[in-house]
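Inputs:
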Amino acid sequence: MTEPRLADELHKMEREYEPLLPIEKKLIWYTFATGVVLLAALVLISRAFV
Amino acid sequence: MPTLVEEAPVKHAPPPPHETAIEQRPGMSEDWLALCIGLFIFVLSLGLLFGKDILGWAVTTAVWTIPGKALAPASKAYATLPPLLALAATYVFLLVVMSVGAKLLRADLKRFVGGFTVVFALSYLCWFLGSWAYIAATPDKRAALKIPWSLNLTNESGFIIALLAGLAVGNFLPGISRFLKEAIRPELYIKTAIVILGGFLGIAALEQRALATSVMFRGACAIIEAYLIYWPIVYFVSRRYFGFSREWAAPLASGISICGVSAAIATGSAIRARPIVPIMVSSLVVIFAVVELLFLPFVAQHFLYGQPMVAGAWMGLAVKTDGAAVASGAITDSLIRAKALAATGIAYQPGWIMGVSATVKVFIDIFIGVWAFVLAWVWAAKIEPRAGEKVRAREIWQRFPKFILGYVVTFALVLAIGAAVPALVPKIKASMGQANVFRAIFFVMTFFAIGTLSNFRKLWQEGIAKLAAVYVLCLFGYIIWVGLLISWLFFHGVLPPVVKG
C-alpha cells in the first residue's frame, strides 16, 4: 500500500469535514478552564511563598 | 524523539522521517543511550574527587585572535599536551563512545563512523569560527584582546554558525546529507548534553539554593501552560477554523503546544493515528524550531536583557523540541549576559538563563506520557470507542522520556555530595567544568544536526502549506505571546546571581 500524500489528505479533509463532537468541546473548554484556574492559583502561591 | 518509536507498545508511532531506517531494527532507545553516555561522561569527570584527572585532556576553545592560540586542554595538568592532540583525543574518545552507542542502537556502524566524523569536524569548525574575537568578544574583553570592535555575540555564536552550516547541507547538498544520515541525531546529542547539564546546574543550585528552589517551582508551573492552556486552543483552532480531522488536529496540537516531535508521536500513538500524521507534524515542528531558534534569542536579547530569567523561561515554553529549546536557552544566556554587561555593567553568572530553559523543558517532557495516557483514554472511551480496547496505566512509564532520569541523577548527586561535604565543592566545580566541555560539543553537534534535518524544499513539495498555516497562526499569534506573558508572571524580578569581583 502506498503512503498517502499530505496534499491528498488535506483535500480529503475538505470534502469530509468532521464537526466538533460535544465530548471534544468538553475536552477543550474544561482543559482550558482548569489551566486558567490552576495558573492563577500557582501565580498566587509563587508570589506568596516562593 | 525516538523514545516512543522504539519501545514495543507504541505500535502506531512512526519516527521522524530521518529515522525510518533505524526504527525498523529494534535496539536500545536513544533516550536510554543518552542517559548512559551522559552518566558515563559525568562519572569520568568525577575522577577529580579522587585525585584522578581522567578528562583533563578534552579540548576547549577560547575566544581568539590568533587561531593557533584558540585550542587548549581543559585541565592545567595537561598543559603540555599540544592543542591539536587534545582535539584529536576528544574526537577519538567521542567516536569510540558514540560508536558503541550506535552499535547498541543497531545503526549501520560503518556509515555512522563516517557520518559522525564529518558531523564532529564541521560542528567543531563552526564552534571554532564562532569563537573568533571579532564575532564573539564581549565589550569588557576587547581591550585584553586588542581589538577595536566586535559583534558581542559570545562564543555561542558558533551554535548559530553550525545551524546555518547544517541548513546549507540539508537543503543544498543532498548527497552529503544522505552520507551523514546515520550520525544526524540531534535528540541523542541534546539529551546527552541535558544529562551532563544536570550536574552543571547542580553546582549552580548548590551555590544559590533558594533561587534554585524558586526556579524549580516556577519551572514546574510551565506544565500547566503547555498542556492545559496551549493544547486545547490549538486543537480548537485547527479543528474549527482549519477543518482538520481529529486524527490530524490532536498530534498537531501536541506538536505545537508541548514538546514538538516527542509529543506529536506520543499523541499520534495515543489516538491511533496513521503513521503519516506524526511524521508530517514532526517535520513541521523541526522546521519551525529552526525559525524560532534563529530569531527568538535575539528578540529576547533586545527586549528582555533586564529580565534574564523571563527570557530563559520564554525559550523553554515557546521553542519546540528539546534540542532547539535548550539550544535557544544557551544562545539567549550568552546574548543577554553580553547585552546586560554592555548596557548596565552587570555581569550575570553564566548558565542560569539556560538552566531555566532546560528546567521548563524537562518538566514539560515529564508529563508527555501522562498527557498521552489522558488522550488515549478520552479517544478510546468517548470519541472512538473500540470493543475490548483498554488503556493501561503502564503506558505512562513506557512513554516517559528516560533521559530525564539521568538529568535528575546528576543534578541530585552533585547537590547531595556538595551539601554533605562542602570542602569538596571546588573539586566538584572543576569536575563539572570538564564534563561541560563535552556538553558544549554535544550542543554544537545538535545545532548542526537540526539544520541538516530541515529540508524546507521537500516539505513545500509535500503540500504542507495548510499545516504550516495553523502552525504559524498558533505559534506566532498565540503560543509565543502567551508563553511570554506566563514567563513574565512567574519569573519577572527573579534575577541570576551576579559574578563577584
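Chain A has a mean pLDDT of 84. Flag for discussion at group meeting.
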